[in-house]
Write a structure and sequence with these properties.
The complex is a heterodimer of chains A (150) and B (434). In chain A, strand 5 and strand 6 (115-122) form a beta hairpin. Chain A starts with a helix and ends with a helix. With 150 residues, chain A is α+β, with helices and mostly antiparallel strands. Chain A folds into two domains: 5-74, VC0802-like (2-Layer Sandwich), CATH 3.30.2130; 77-141, Alpha-Beta Plaits (2-Layer Sandwich). The model of chain A has no long low-confidence stretch (mean pLDDT 89). Helices cover 35% and strands 37% of the residues of chain A. Chain A has a six-stranded antiparallel β-sheet. Chain B has eleven helices and 21 strands. Chain B is of the alpha/beta class and 434 residues long. The model of chain B has no long low-confidence stretch (mean pLDDT 90). A nine-stranded mixed β-sheet of chain B has the order 4-3-5-6-7-8-9-14-13. Chain B has two domains: 5-326, ANL, N-terminal domain (Rossmann fold, 3-Layer(aba) Sandwich), CATH 3.40.50.12780; 331-429, 2-Layer Sandwich (GMP Synthetase, Chain A, domain 3), CATH 3.30.300.30. In chain B, helix 2 (12-33) crosses helix 3 and helix 5 crosses helix 6 (140-152). The radius of gyration of chain B is 23 Å and the shape is globular. The longest helix of chain B has 22 residues, at 12-33. Classes of the chains: A alpha+beta (150), B alpha/beta (434). The interface between A and B is medium-sized, with 23 and 20 residues.
């Protein structure tokens, strides 16, 4: 597996906090047959950021931009995390030991082969370092191709 | 009381003759003394001899604010510096201010006189204690009002602005009867009085002279009620002389222009054509008597209308209506001049946002609030809340260092700010009335 397949392209959308905007994003994607695999929302009182994992990120970015949204592509890593108490803690411990700061993370709703799937965002500059850390710690990284098809 | 009945209640035809005589003298002087004017007039094909009637003035070109900037600091002075006894400057926030000068006779024979007239318009006499809360310094308000007050014979208390509780203490202890300040500061004083438990009966004031920024009838009512005074609108601008250009008498609603010194015209701001009485347009002034820093047909950019109808008070001066706006889009926020173009300059230096923006002005309590709405670029850079908040912070800081006032920056989605054909509507001013 090449390093590029270890990096998942997340679609990030800027949203003002006003009613109907989230629905508009979802229907723009739905109308075009794009499936949302995972999502998270971060917000303040004025605006929010919607983060999406979809099956075809490039197409989704293009469609949302056409629909007038501010859209960015963000590199994230998807990890298989043992679905048991302490599973996530072990992963975070590894990252902490390697001095990698997690900007944000969120979990997939479903599982992969019985394991939980968690999306991690770290700064682009430490992305390769993080992948190496995780591999050395034998924490399974889910290939992007599999994440999109989940 | 009318300070100078001879000039203030002069027969209109007699005044017109005086105006023409003074105008011809002034123009002839400038033709010799100020190369800027001579060049401008030569280019327009006019000479002082063309001034056979007041109407001939319209053949002369306008003087713009920009002309005064380009000739900074002394290029427009019409007397040698050794004759200049005072300098004042406009409150420009960036770049060079406009510097104006006064020779001795400008201060004593014109400015102090027109301020004395102004105070009398507000019902003042030599018996009054004048609490002057206009800022003293380069700003024309403080010193301008000061010397006129002394000329009239008032007891002038040179408070300058700030330390509001102390102002109220002094006012009450000294028995101040007239307050001179900006209207927004008068509102602050009125609020502070209320907080200190001082009602209209506790405050000795009977009148207020408020100018140097636009204000509303709503504000007038508030200060009149809270301070128990009669509030008068006064008008002036640094380029003409400072305060003392026009003032409201007891017949409220319009201001007497002291037009034996300052000749007003109303023009169509688009075509430059002179408009008849009653029509609204841009106010233009020619100083007939000032020596150190005269201006011919200076475009004030203030929007109002003019009337020559006699006033019941007996003064025969032309009168202007309350200033309703400005021809350019300069904003006055908390007393600071702000041009949307300055904001635009800052915003365009950020790649993360679009050059589209909108300014929303509101008034929170007595304070003007400016919200700058900017669109995030279609492809945005940071997808963390911290990153976006940092962006807002960086824009806010840069705006603060450019404008000198703090504003709220609000990120909005692309294409949400209305696009217009031609001139964009950048400003939503919700301050009009409280």
């Amino acid at each position: 597996m090449s390093n590029s397949d270890k990096i998942v392209q997340q679609v990030s959308v800027f949203l003002e906090n006003k009613s109907g905007r989230l629905a508009e994003v979802c229907s723009t994607l739905g109308d075009n047959g794009i499936n949302i695999r995972a999502l998270s929302v971060a917000d303040t009182s004025d605006f929010g950021i919607l983060r999406l994992i979809v099956d075809v990120p490039d197409r989704a970015t293009e469609l949302l931009q056409q629909a007038g949204f501010s859209v960015g592509a963000t590199s994230v890593i998807a990890l298989e995390v043992p679905d048991r108490p302490g599973g996530l803690a072990a992963v975070l411990k590894t990252l902490q030991a390697g001095e990698v700061n997690v900007e944000y993370m969120y979990a997939f709703v479903g599982t992969h082969g019985g394991e939980a799937v968690v999306i991690f965002r770290v700064a682009d500059e430490v992305l390769d370092h993080t992948i190496e850390l995780l591999q050395n710690a034998q924490i399974p990284i889910l290939p992007a191709s599999e994440v999109y098809a989940l | 009381m009318i300070w100078d009945p001879k000039h203030e209640c002069m027969d209109i035809e007699e005044r017109r003759a005086l105006q023409l005589r003074r105008l011809r003298e002034q123009v002839a002087r400038l033709w010799v003394n100020v190369p800027f004017y001579r060049q401008k007039w030569e280019a327009a094909g006019v000479t002082p001899d063309d001034l056979q009637s007041l109407d001939d003035l319209r053949r002369f070109p306008f003087t713009e604010k920009d002309d005064l900037r380009k000739t900074y600091p002394f290029g427009m002075f019409a007397t040698p510096l050794e004759e200049v006894v005072r300098i004042h400057a406009s409150s420009g926030t960036t770049g060079k201010p406009i510097v104006v000068g006064y020779c001795k006779s400008d201060v004593t024979d014109i400015w102090a006189e027109t301020i004395a007239r102004t105070i009398c318009c507000g019902g003042g006499t030599s018996q009054d204690i004048l609490h002057n809360a206009y800022g003293y310094g380069l700003f024309t308000g403080g010193l301008g009002v000061h010397y006129g007050g002394e000329l009239l014979g008032c007891t002038v208390v040179p408070m300058s602005a700030g330390n509001t509780q102390r102002q109220l203490m002094m006012m009450c202890d000294l028995g101040a009867t007239i307050l001179a300040s900006t209207p927004s500061y008068a509102l602050t004083i009125a609020d502070a009085a209320e907080e200190m438990g001082l009602g209209p009966d506790d405050i000795p004031l009977k009148a207020g002279l408020f100018g140097a920024e636009p204000w509303s009838e709503g504000s007038r009512q508030v200060v009149e009620e809270k301070l128990g005074i009669s509030a008068h609108d006064i008008y002036g601008l640094t380029e003409i002389i400072g305060p003392g250009v026009a003032a409201e008498c007891e017949v409220k609603g319009m201001m007497h222009v002291f037009d034996d010194h300052f000749l007003p015209e109303i023009i169509d701001p688009e075509t430059g054509e002179v408009l008849p009485d009653g029509e609204t347009g841009e106010l233009v002034f020619t100083t007939l008597t000032k020596r150190a820093f005269p201006v011919i047909r200076f475009r004030t950019r203030d929007i109002t209308s003019l009337t020559h109808e006699p006033c019941p008070c007996g003064r025969t001066h032309a009168r202007i209506a309350r200033i309703t706006g400005r021809t350019d889009d300069m904003l006055i926020i908390r007393g600071v001049n702000v041009f949307p173009s300055q904001i635009e300059d800052v915003l365009t230096s950020f790649a993360e946002i679009e050059p589209q923006y909108q300014l929303v002005l509101t008034r929170k309590g007595r304070l003007d609030q400016l919200e700058v709405q900017v669109e995030v670029a279609p492809r945005f850079f940071s997808d963390t809340i911290g990153g976006l908040e940092q962006l807002e912070q960086r824009i806010t800081e840069k705006l603060y260092s450019t404008l000198g006032i703090s504003v709220t920056v609000r990120l909005v989605e692309p294409k949400t700010i209305e696009r217009s054909i031609g001139k964009a509507k950048r400003i939503i001013d919700l301050r009009e009335e409280e």
